[in-house]
Structures are given as C-alpha cells and as structure tokens.
Design goal:
16 strands; pyruvate-formate lyase- activating enzyme; single chain
Length: 450
C-alpha cells in the first residue's frame, strides 16, 4: 500500500505546565528515527496539544503507531476509534500495557506489538507497504543495546525538546534482575540488565544539545553492582560534558560504593530516586530483595549518599498486605526525620502481569468498578487486607496533604538547594523544587475524577 506518512502518538493527561509539556516522548523519538529518510514521520504528543482534531485529518495511506502505559490505554482506544473513523486502516499499538496484557488490546487494535519494538518496527513499515501486515509482532529476546535506534537529526529538530518539554529523557541501561511482586520491569524489559555503549550515550547527549535529563532506566543503581567498571567509565565520560545535572532511579545498595558515588557527583548526578518501598519489615517478601523495610539501614544509606553531595528522593508504596494506616504515618515521620530531599508516596497498584495482581485475582480482591485510568498509583483499585478501602483512602489523603503541603515542599527544596555552592544555586533551583511539585500533581489526580 502507498504510505503517505507515519504518525507516532504519545498519550498524556497532564497537559502543559507553565508553557511546556512535562516529559519528552523519548521512546517515540527513537522509533521515529528508525523510519527511512524518504518517508515522512511525525510525533504527536497529547500533553503538548489536543490530538482529536489532528487525528481526523488522517486517512488510509497513513500508518499510525501509539504507545501506552496501563493508565493511558483507554485514551489510546479512543484515539484509535477516531483514527478509524477518519479512514485509517492500520493503527499499531505498543507499550507496557500491550506487552503485559495483549488480550485486552487485540479486539480493537489493528496490530499489536509486544516486547521491544526496535527490531519489529522496521518490519511493520515494510509489511504495511507490501500489504502484508500481521496482527501481532513480538520481540522479547531483549537484544544487546549497542547501536539500537540512535536518534536522527530530523527527529531531534522536530521534537525541539528544549523549547517544548521540561524534562528530556535518556536511557543508559535496560532490564532489572530484581523481581518485586508489584513491579512490571522484568516483564517489559527483561530480567537481565543490558548496557548502552558509553560512546553512544555521549554522542547522543551532544547531538541533542541537552544539559540535563532523567534516566528512564528501571534501576540504574544496579550498574554499580553488576558492572562497576562500566559505571566508572560512564561517569568519567559524563564528567567532561557541560551538564547542569541528571537524575535516575536506583536501589539503596549504591551507598556501599562511595568511590563510585563521588565519581557520580563529579559526573553531574544531582539526585537518586531510591525505591525503599516500605518501612514495614513484614513486607520484605514482596520487595524483590532490594529492600527489607529496615529503617536503620535506610537512614544509613541516605546519610552516606547525601554526604557525597547527591540528593536522595525516597520512593515508598502503601498498601501491602501487612500495611495499616499506622505504616503510612510511620513512613512520613521517617522521611521527615531522616532529611530526605523529596518523597514519593504512592498506592500499590496491581498492574497486569505481576504476581501481586495474580494473587488478588485468586483471592477475589480486585475492585470490579475500576477502569484502567485508575491504575495511576494514586487510586485504590483492590481490597486491602488489614484496612478497609475507606480507611486506606482517608489516611492516604491525610498523609499526602502533610507531605506535599507548600511549607514542607519549601523546606525540602531549600535543604536540597543548600547542598550546592552559591554560584550553582540558580542552575539548581528548578530541580530542587520540581520533584515534589510533580508528586503533588500526581496526588492531585486522586480527586480529578470519581
């Protein structure tokens, strides 16, 4: 079939914040870069602009691809319906939700993509042109990351990250050998950790002309443990770049590598988002080996990391089977007393494909009236064991209002800002306060719809 153009769509619900969308569509940027130069390709982002009117301009000679997390899948289904009404015959759906639960998407998608699309996407384009599209493409081999989907200059220019987005995204590693009962990481990225070549990372940063970024890596801290030589090489390379700063998710075990942390600081690492997950030691079985609910060890790790000049954002989850409202307040007290730079407190969410969801299905504890839009870590979607849904929601609201009150955000932000030299404070001001502001917005979705 004649191919007029390819449109890649990123759903979203945040919209613009002070004139910019929150995060650049990094995965779609890489997929768009795989499109041959003689084919027109566009990336549309619903956070940047409403997409419904643009979808109605498409037709049967356009190939449309969309990616979706679980909470976005209903929005993507609506976009697909509009595209079909406009005459589009090939809408390709990929992303986490499809990989985790393909049977949920198959009835309304023309093509589904499970696993990674970097090898299947070029084949889809070819098959569209040859009228040979299949209904399902799968790649769960978790290929080596060397040379995978480098960003093209035309995509970099089109997305215009510095003008349109607050946070450029970046990937250095993929996969996680941990197996937390509630996490989707190993199911969408594999259980083996893979590394991009350092030279490719540096080259990408320089061509994109970005001076800060957030890593999409599920658990970058494991690089300290699995391949410290690679990690050292990476930090030495990043040290030479004129970066304002970058942030990443990690596990607390990095505190045992003080020399690498010192190198990380020299490499402009601003803060680590550390998944402590729970202050309740009774939850250790669900935490995949990376955390055991031991607050004394948490405090030791936070102190050691902050001593190097790197900030610590504590990530905590409420709603494990051994949790009560008391655990939420103990978490808040811990975070306050230990001097965290920011806190994320989310509701345990039974994502498709996880052992936690399978357990809830077996025990008939999933709430039947909760559509996928509620799977955003701000809503309760199942029946807890040691508290009622009403208790959970009421105490969670109270705790979050305490954590994300303007005065608490200001206190934590000023503490983080004070860690930097005076001459660096203007450059670091945004990052010192933006994390808590983002978490406050996430919590606000608790009351955005009933």
């Amino acid at each position: 079939m004649e191919l007029r153009k390819i449109v890649l769509i990123q759903p979203g619900r945040e919209g613009k914040i002070f004139g910019k969308a929150p995060a650049a569509p990094y995965t779609l940027m890489r997929l768009a870069s795989l499109v041959p130069d003689d084919i027109e390709v566009e990336i549309w982002h619903h956070d940047w602009e409403p997409l419904e009117p643009k979808l109605r301009t498409l037709g049967k000679h356009d190939l449309v691809g969309m990616t979706a997390k679980t909470l976005e899948i209903e929005q993507v289904q609506r976009f697909t319906q509009i595209a079909h009404e406009a005459g589009v015959q090939a809408v390709v759906i990929g992303g986490n939700h499809v990989t985790l639960m393909p049977e949920d998407v198959t009835p309304w998608a023309d093509v589904i993509v499970t696993g990674e699309a970097y090898r299947t996407w070029p084949k889809i384009i070819e098959d569209f042109q040859n009228d040979a599209l299949k209904s399902h493409y799968n790649d769960t081999e978790w290929a080596d990351l060397t040379g995978v989907a480098p960003l093209s200059d035309r995509v970099i220019a089109q997305v215009d990250e510095r003008r349109r987005y607050w946070t450029p995204m970046m990937e250095i590693t993929r996969g996680c050998p941990r197996n937390c009962s509630f996490c989707t990481a190993i199911r969408v990225s594999g259980q083996k950790m893979r590394f991009r070549p350092v030279e490719e990372i540096v080259e990408e940063i320089e061509r994109r002309k970005i001076d800060r970024f957030f890593l999409t890596d599920d658990n970058f801290g494991l690089a300290f443990i699995i391949d410290p030589e690679y990690t050292e090489k990476l930090f030495l390379a990043l040290e030479k770049l004129p970066l304002r700063g970058w942030t990443t998710q990690s596990e607390m075990a990095v505190y045992k590598y003080p020399e690498l942390l010192k190198l990380a600081k020299r490499a402009h690492l601003d803060k680590l988002f550390i998944g402590f997950e729970s202050v309740n030691p009774d939850n250790w079985r669900e935490l995949g080996g990376k955390s055991k609910g031991l607050t004394k060890q948490y405090a030791e790790s936070i102190k050691a990391i902050q001593k190097t000049g790197i900030g610590v954002v504590g990530l905590f989850v409420f709603g494990f089977d051994n949790d009560t409202p008391k655990v939420m307040w103990e978490t808040w007290e811990f975070g306050k007393n230990v001097g965290l730079d920011s806190m994320s407190t989310t509701v345990l969410t039974p994502y498709p494909g996880t052992p936690f969801r399978e357990q809830l299905i077996k025990e008939d504890r999933l709430m039947p009236d909760k559509s996928w839009q509620y799977y955003d870590t701000a809503h309760v979607t199942y029946y807890p064991k040691l508290m009622t849904v009403e208790e959970f929601e009421r105490e969670y609201d109270k705790v979050c209002r305490a954590i994300y009150s303007p005065i608490r955000i200001a206190q934590r932000g000023l503490r983080a800002l004070a860690r930097h030299p005076l001459q660096r404070m203007p450059a670091k001001a945004f990052g010192s306060f933006s994390t808590d502001y983002g978490y406050r917005r996430t919590f606000a979705w608790r009351h955005a719809f009933s």
